[in-house]
Amino acid sequence: MQPSRHAAERRLVIVVGAVVFVDTMFYAAIAPLLPGLAHSLHLSKLSAGVMTAAYPLGTLAGALPGGVLAVRVGPKRTVYAGLALLAGSTLAFGFLDNPALLDLARFVEGLGGACSWAGGLAWIVAEAAPERRGGLIGGALGAAIAGALLGPVIGTIATAIGRGPAFSAVVLLSLVLMIEAGRLPAVRSESRQGVRDLGRSLRDRGVVTGMWLVTLPAIASGLLNVLGPLRLHGLGAAAAAIGATFLAGAAIEALLSPVLGRLSDRRGRLLPLRFGLGGAAVLLACFALPQSAALLAVLIVAIAATLAAFWAPAMAMLSDAAEAWGLDQALAAALMNLAWAGGQILGSGAGGAVAKAAGDALPTLGAAGLCAATLLALAPLARGRRHATAGGQGIPE
Questions:
Q1: 0.85 exceeded by pTM
Q2: CA 225 to CA 160: how far, in whole Å?
Q3: Which residues contact 77 (CB under 8 A, 6 or more apart)?
Q4: Angle between helical axes of 239-267 and 293-307 (0-180°, round to 10)
């Protein structure tokens, strides 16, 4: 039975991974498009930040409804809803030229993403054995990051042939994925939990810690998505070079995420997280130093590599804490969406506003400080768990 279960888990991860791949692909396509949109639509850094942040704003707005929907109608139908919203909104983004309408299209993309992620993650966790959870979440995240990897390529192509033709394929992709998802057995939650249960779970320290460890890399990622392309452009990089930089960063994240998820299953969630926190603190503090596009591109790729140490271990930690508390995993996925979206909004929206007022160094130094402070805060927890394990307690991380 075990091999067949593993095969079913792999098939599910492939399908859910494909769904989030398409979602993040069109989310990330904005990076090389942003300088051209800023020029043609006369966008300031703040306006560019708002356009970038519109997607996570939609995810934030859709996080709780998406989680509750996954509880009520099941993960499969929630994934269907996410794909339908993604198809319509991405097609609209391809043909609109009004900044406000483009912001709205990105917002609806975020709503669809919230449904896709809530349904997909709840589906995986419901099927996964706890000791394989980090690796399976990491596999789906690797696919999502691969979508972010291809996104800049789509954006670069769109700068050459136009957004409309480049983005039209999303409708066909969404239909294919709905068909593939329909071939998988449906998983229905027997709980009738809702927003009140989710709110009560926030009293748990493990749940809050897991949420913060998802929020923090999202802050850093949001900053990079706004300040990276604009700073590279200011140093003379072309759209193709900007796309190649984010392509390389996403490639490393996609490769590392499943590996680090499996590592967190074997060695505990905190081990990769601590390495990620230390590396990100140092590299983010250096963001404003390079005075050439090549050096800045190398630094952006290195930061992306450190962020890979966060995603799967932090999400698995949050899932573990939710399970221990008794929270339905669909609502745990909603918490992941809330944490990611909140971080992206802070990083891209607030980060863009601070950068406009005071330069790029201040927000990136702030993010570096948050990583360093979190690393220090986790040190007593890591020591306590080592002592508990040495004493035979075997407390899971």
A1: no
A2: 21
A3: 69, 119
A4: 20
Residue 40 amino acid letter: S
Which of 32-36, 55-59, 175-179, 389-393 has the weakest average pLDDT?
389-393
**How many C-beta atoms surround the C-beta of residue 100 within 10 A?**
10
d(C-alpha 133, C-alpha 120), whole Å: 13
Integer Cα distance of 248 and 338 in angstroms: 27
Instruction: Give yes or no for residue 122 having a pLDDT over 50.
Output: yes
pLDDT at 99: 87
Q: Which alpha helices (H) appear in the chain, and where do they start and end? A: 2-28, 30-40, 45-73, 75-95, 99-127, 133-161, 163-167, 169-182, 195-201, 205-234, 239-267, 270-285, 293-307, 311-325, 329-344, 351-358, 361-390
The structure tokens 């790029």 sit at 360
Q: Which amino acid is at 259?
A: V
Nearest to residue 212, comparing CAs of 377, 363, 355, 384? Answer: 377
Rounded alpha-carbon distances, angstroms, from residue 79 to 11, 158, 302: 16, 27, 33
Measured distance CA(312)–CA(323) in Å, rounded:
16
Which residues have C-beta within 8 Å of that of residue 210, sequence separation ≥ 6?
314, 315, 317, 318, 319, 320, 321, 322, 335, 339
Distance from the Cα of residue 242 to its chain's centroid: 20
Furthest-apart CA pair in the chain: how many Å?
64
d(CA 386, CA 395): 9
Question: Residue 180: left (phi > 0), alpha (psi -120 to 50), or beta?
Answer: alpha
Length of the chain measured in residues: 397
Give the C-alpha separation, 310 to 207, whole Å.
15
Q: How far apart are CA 47 and CA 132, in angstroms?
A: 42
Phi-psi region of 42 (alpha: psi -120 to 50; beta: other; left: phi over 0): left
pLDDT digits (tens, 9 = 90+) for 90-114: 888 888 888 889 999 999 999 998 9
User: Is the Cα dihedral 335, 341, 346, 350 positive or negative?
Assistant: negative
Residue-level pLDDT at 191: 66
Write out the CATH class of domain 2-388: mainly alpha
d(CA 15, CA 12): 5
List pLDDT tens digits, range 347-361: 877 887 888 888 889
